[in-house]
Give the backbone structure.
Amino acid sequence: MNTQSYSANPFTKNNTNGVAIELCGDLSLTNNSALLDKLNTDLEKYDFFEISISEVESIDIPFIQLMHSFEKTAKSYDKKVTVRCSLSPDIKAIIGDAGFNEKLGLD
């Protein structure tokens, strides 16, 4: 069974509390509930999110939807989210074919 890795490293930038979040591994529906809990906890604590996605073993549409929803929710609370992805060409192609490049900042 593939697992998801989540690490959160708090930082302060321009007197703003932020967090650098690294996601890798299995970014699929199987792990979305736990990820959502972690993101919601962080949403209460931080104003700025730098999310880095790399070393992806698997990814699916529900994960992309979750990331999009988190970004919209954070924005509604005047919080900022940036997402950086380092994905294999195969995974980039799948995401592109599904029309989700923009949602993960791949354009």
User: Anything to note?
Assistant: The mean pLDDT is 89. The first strand starts at residue 4 and ends at 13. The radius of gyration is 13 Å. Residues 8 and 21 are 4 Å apart (CA to CA).
